[in-house]
Design the sequence.
């Protein structure tokens, strides 16, 4: 267990230049957000979950497995909703510095979370994530919605860092359907991959991308792992238009606030919306949905 001093955020707030960059380009990287000791704790806890995944051979509610996962050589692709299974992840989700940065970017004091995931790319393999916009998965009444990616390891081009298209958050919501079903990846390739920019950040830093920013990531071609804890947040007055699995109760909704109070007055803006419908053939994770994709979005 870390002492409170070690969990105190090093970065309290974004500068006006960082806020402008986020709004202009749709993503930023912020170095030095968590102290080394907290990053070391996240690594140790994550290593332990990889060990525990030796006990399973199929995807579960918690583990999403790489295709060649075996009990002898465990290969975990994702830990689902990690904040629900270990308090070290939950503490990061509620970290004052991260919540403050989010509040600055979404423009409301109140901030709620709509989930977490820990995506892992082990050395020398590690699945790619095809190009997509998160907004296609979970549209809200307004698009003040974002994902903070906490780098548990240095995130570099070689180990499969996030890639993003600057300015794409201001463009259309692209089609993510193929043969009449949602596949969780863009199926109209109306963008230029030459514009893609890597979001590189050292361990302990974070990436932040807008919900409409077109992004993806390549496989890990290095020997070092890339583990990224993704924290999904939105403005306190952004209400989900679509929730996979059905509507939340009011109590469940209130429990999603990491700062401020839930209110029934939500803000509606004119952001374009596509529902993730008809439903995907495979569900459980973005990797499973994208398995149905014919061809590659990396061209
Ligand atoms: O882990 C990655 O590289 C990308 C993750 C992502 O975009 C997602 O899970 O929605």
Sequence:
């Amino acid at each position: 267990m870390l002492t409170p001093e070690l969990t105190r955020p090093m970065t309290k707030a974004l500068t006006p230049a960082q806020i402008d960059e986020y709004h202009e380009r749709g993503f930023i990287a912020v170095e030095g957000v968590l102290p080394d000791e907290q990053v070391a704790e996240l690594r140790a806890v994550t290593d332990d979950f990889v060990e525990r995944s030796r006990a399973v051979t199929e995807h579960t509610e918690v583990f999403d497995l790489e295709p060649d996962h075996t009990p002898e050589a465990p290969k975990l692709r994702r830990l689902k909703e990690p904040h629900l299974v270990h308090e070290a992840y939950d503490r990061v989700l509620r970290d004052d510095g991260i919540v403050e940065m989010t509040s600055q970017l979404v423009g409301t004091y109140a901030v709620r979370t709509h989930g977490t995931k820990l995506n892992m790319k082990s050395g020398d393999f590690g699945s790619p994530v095809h190009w997509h916009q998160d907004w296609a998965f979970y549209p809200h009444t307004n698009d003040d919605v974002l994902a903070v990616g906490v780098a548990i390891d240095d995130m570099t081009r070689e180990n499969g860092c996030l890639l993003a298209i600057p300015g794409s958050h201001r463009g259309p919501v692209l089609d993510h359907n193929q043969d009449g079903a949602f596949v969780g990846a863009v199926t109209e390739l109306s963008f230029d991959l030459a514009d893609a920019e890597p979001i590189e950040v050292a361990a302990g830093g974070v990436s932040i991308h807008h919900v409409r920013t077109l992004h993806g990531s390549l496989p890990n071609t290095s020997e070092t792992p890339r583990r990224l804890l993704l924290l999904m947040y939105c403005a306190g007055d952004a209400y989900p238009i679509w929730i996979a699995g059905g509507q939340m109760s009011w109590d469940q909704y209130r429990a999603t606030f990491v700062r401020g109070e839930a209110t029934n007055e939500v803000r509606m803006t004119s952001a374009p919306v596509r529902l993730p419908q008809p439903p995907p053939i495979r569900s459980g994770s973005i990797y499973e949905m994208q398995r149905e994709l014919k061809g590659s979005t990396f061209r």
Remarks:
- The two ends are 46 Å apart (CA to CA).
- The chain is about 20% helix and 20% strand.
- The longest strand covers residues 111-121.
